Amino acid sequence: MSNKKLFIQTTSLWDFPSQNYGTSKQGDIGYKGATPSYIIWNLLMKYTKEKQIIVDPMCGSGTTLDVCKDTNRFGIGYDLTPFRSDIKKADARKIPLKNNYADFVFIDPPYSDNLKYSDNKADIGNLNAKDDQYFISLSLVIKEINRILKPGRFFALYVCDYFSTKKGFVPIGFKLFNIMIKYFTSVDIISVIRHNNDLKKGNYHKAAEENNFYLRGFNYLFIMKKPKGLTNGNFNKKTGNKRTKFNRNSSKYSK
Ligand SMILES: C[S@@+](CC[C@H](N)C(=O)[O-])C[C@H]1O[C@@H](n2cnc3c(N)ncnc32)[C@H](O)[C@@H]1O
How far is the CA of 209 from the centre of ligand 1 (A)? Predict the structure, then answer.
């Protein structure tokens, strides 16, 4: 691998114009919804060390596993529909790992039902973000990530808001953040410039201009930390089931 073009991002606005870094391949460029590998590389450089255990519960084409190999980390990837043999089959709501096992978790979940991954009923990519069930499902994934992550370690979630001319706008990022802060403390929020092929299409821009909406120009990268003294969401061993006022609003997503 060559890291010539790769550098550690130092602001909260990240940009890298290609899916893969260097001369090697990470994940599959033909896989719709593959995560740009420099994002995972930057996270691993900042929040992990060599030989640590990195888990991706929705591993898709395996980008996280390839970046782990490049950087001498131990990657474990799951997906409901494994794309290649080193990705194990599992529902992200039931990850077959013991509690407090992972040193870092990265996840890039489906953003509503805009891409088809499978016909499996458990596939969260078959749920529209206008439907509460999408957030209920992802709240279970977030809870599961909290279970497998070691206290004091980091978790990153990469996601985009939803807009459809028929159904309107859903601030997926804000809604998921509201769920995540029940379990994790917020470390930072990064805006990642999208280089989606659709953004290169003139007719998409024309439609946005004529119909008064915006194309999605950025993704959120939420960086969270599992607090050392907390277990199981906002449950504190010493003080009991303590909730903040802000968290109480999102209680319908907690199971
Ligand atoms: C945006 S893609 C992930 C892309 C991946 N990071 C990559 O670089 O290729 C989302 C993935 O979530 C998976 N998925 C959907 N529902 C799932 C579930 N309940 N459990 C595990 N994986 C699921 C899909 O199969 C899809 O591969």
Answer: 32
